[in-house]
Every structure is written in structure tokens, then in C-alpha cells.
Design a protein that fits this description.
Order of helices and strands: EHEHEHEHEH
Low-confidence stretches: none
Number of helices: 5
Distance between the termini: 11 Å
Strand content: 15-25%
Mean pLDDT: 90
Helix content: 40-55%
Length: 125
């Protein structure tokens, strides 16, 4: 049970957070959730995740701010960060945010899980 990869979901939209939590559990991941950027950083430091799914547009600290803050911490240098966004993102935007990839909302469940597994060793799930 304790060997499930931990995925931190950061989104200010409670229905998205609830959906992602259920979905990730169903596919064998251990989800942690945050509804703000500051909360995400606090949770990541207390419980280092295997990957972060990060909403691009949030009030206060947006996704870019959170990604940069995590990347500034040497403990999170290699942490995969996937941006959740309602609009397409260019590779230049992702590079500027220091994110590894993007997932379009509304997302395709199979594509989302494949993308997560690309970064997290979860073949047994």
C-alpha cells in the first residue's frame, strides 16, 4: 500500500480536485491535494510527491509561480510537473514555467494516466 506513487494535485476548483483524487486512486496512485499555490508548496515539502499536477490559472500564486518556487528548491529539482490548462500551451511556455508537460482540460483519462506513468514508475498499477 505504501509503495503507491504520490501525486500532488493542485487546483482551485473543488470538483476538479475531487475528480482527480478519485481517478488517481482508481489507477493506483496515492493522491494529495491542494487548492492554492502556497498550500501546494507546504504539502510538497511535508510529503514529497512523485509528480505534481498543477493548475495553470489560480488566484494568488498561479501555476507558473508554484512551478518556479518548487524548482528553486534543490529538493524538487527533478520533480516532474505537469500543468493542467484549459488552453493549449507551447513548449516555450512550458519551458518558461519550468514544467515538464501539459494536460488539457477537459482531459482524456487514458491520456492523463499515460502521461503520469511516463514520468512515474507505476507499471505495476
Amino acid at each position: 500500500m505504501g509503495n503507491k506513487p504520490t501525486i500532488l494535485v493542485v487546483d482551485d476548483d473543488p470538483p476538479i480536485v475531487t475528480l482527480m483524487r478519485a481517478l488517481l486512486r482508481e489507477f493506483g496512485f496515492d493522491p494529495l491535494t491542494a487548492t492554492s499555490g502556497a498550500e501546494a508548496i507546504e504539502i510538497a515539502r511535508a510529503h514529497p510527491p512523485a509528480l505534481v499536477l498543477l493548475d495553470k490559472n489560480m488566484p494568488g500564486m498561479n501555476g507558473a509561480d508554484v512551478a518556479r518556487a518548487l524548482r528553486a528548491d534543490p529538493a524538487f529539482e527533478g520533480l516532474p510537473i505537469l500543468i493542467l490548462s484549459g488552453e493549449p500551451m507551447s513548449s516555450a511556455e512550458l519551458a518558461e514555467m519550468r514544467a515538464d508537460g501539459a494536460v488539457m482540460k477537459p482531459f482524456d483519462v487514458t491520456a492523463l494516466v499515460e502521461q503520469i506513468r511516463k514520468y512515474v514508475n507505476a507499471d505495476g498499477y
